[in-house]
Amino acid sequence: MSTIIELARERYARVRPSYELTAQNLVTEIRHGAISKNLDCVVEGRAKEVSSYVLKALSSKDVVDPWADVYDKIGLRIVVGHTLDLDVACDLVSELFGEPVYVTDDRRMDIPDNELRYPRLHLQVAVPPGLDASDGVEGKPTCEIQIRTEAANLWSRMSHSYLYKPSSRLPKVVRRSLYRLLALVELYDSEVERAVRAMANDRDRNLNLLVSQLERIFYAFCAADYDADLTRKVSAVVLQSVRESERAAYANKLGQFAAEMRADLENVYREYGPGSTPAALGTYLMVSQPESVAIFERLSNAPRTLSQVWKSNGIPEDLLQDMKGVWA
To answer: Which residues form a coiled coil (predicted)?
Structure first.
């Protein structure tokens, strides 16, 4: 077995740099996909370290073929804000990469009332050829994607080295203490979910969703501070140009717009956005703001209505004219 593992180690060491690039390709794809889903999440990815790969091959009883059975050589983590977004993240993964090879979803388990267990949600997916930086030289790679809430992620990161990779067996009292913390994870997630459901009835819900989505899209293209008060003021005006019956879904529509116009937006922000020469000269102010995405969408689909509400709310006309020139 040691000879087989050594050959697998050498094989993985050769291909790992391309797997690291593949992981970053997958991260970028999910981040942009999350925009269209209006999904607020953190996405991280990596190729397993060679030492970790060898350790898993040596220590796991389930490993017969070290190359095929260590299936998380490429690993991603999607961390969402609350439990209501877990299924949204699952749907996103399926839409981007097809049906998972397998799913481990411990949320559906019938756990006894007197037990606490970590709610695993793991998906193994095939890496699409267009995102595979290894070009399939070592076969078609798969990727394990772990989806967690922020609370579950905090517990997992803190406890992983103690519970799953111990150098010696922990005393029972220590192991029990770690598992008792899962009660706090469950309570935290439950309360956050309750708050999210309550906020769904807030009168400013549509504006709040829009501002959050605009920031999410903006940061996918730019890494810069912005005037938050101006964003909220202009976003409220832009929202007036959207039919009332469509305002609840407008944030999602912006995600689709950003995905479709990704190349154009990249060009605009590169030429006129934060860090550009015009921005340094103090011109094209709105391009350095998140609400620029909504302005571009309205200029594409409802320019006349946008001009009317812009004027009626007393926002300087030259700001909108600049945006028209940029987007044209």
So the answer is: none
Q: N- to C-terminal Cα distance for the chain? A: 64
Q: Which residue, 149, 128, 138, 22, is CA-closest to 81?
A: 149
Which pLDDT score, from 0 to 100, does residue 165 have? 52
Give the model's pLDDT for residue 55: 87
Q: Which CATH architecture has domain 2-152?
A: 2-Layer Sandwich (3.30)
Phi, psi of 251 (to 5 degrees): -60, -40
- Residues of each domain in the chain carrying CATH 3.30.460.10: 2-152
Residue 151 CB coordination number (10 Å): 23
CB 119 within 8 A of CB 43: no
Q: What is the pLDDT of residues 81-105, one digit of tens each?
A: 999 999 999 999 999 999 999 899 9
Q: What is the pTM of this model?
A: 0.66
Mean pLDDT, to the nearest integer, of 135-159?
A: 88
